Amino acid sequence: MTWTTPLRRIVCTTSLCLAALAPAWASALAKDMVSIRGSTVNMRAGPGTHSMVLWELDRGYPLQVLKRRGAWLQVRDYENDRGWVARRLTGHTPHHVVKSRVANVRSGPGMQHRVVGKAVQGEVLRTEQTRAKWVKVRRGSGQSGWISRPLLWGW
User: Fold this and answer.
1) How far apart are CA 70 and CA 90, in angstroms?
2) Model pTM score
3) Domain range holding 67?
């Protein structure tokens, strides 16, 4: 046996480990999320207060970070609208936004649980817990319940 056989094993093992971790890294990078920390924050066309205001975003609104430039973040929302927000006005408290016209809020994570409310498109919800296909959320009114994950966007 030559010295290249153990080296080959190490290289192959390392490559397999990195290949297994790559989807997790890509997912983590693709899902760099923030939420609005201020009561109302302007989403702007460019990174600076001189740029045109595109939207006003309410507290908790979830955004995906696309780019960082100094004190500013380029972000996108669930409708793929893009703009810039001041980094200091964002936080890492998880929230979701309802992307369907109406979403049933259920007493548990599954279709067999009773409907305890309805959330409407664009409603921002605080994320309390996540499961594979369900998210436990808290509404602004304080009501808590579960919504099917495909009806939501955020983290």
Assistant:
1) 14
2) 0.78
3) 33-91
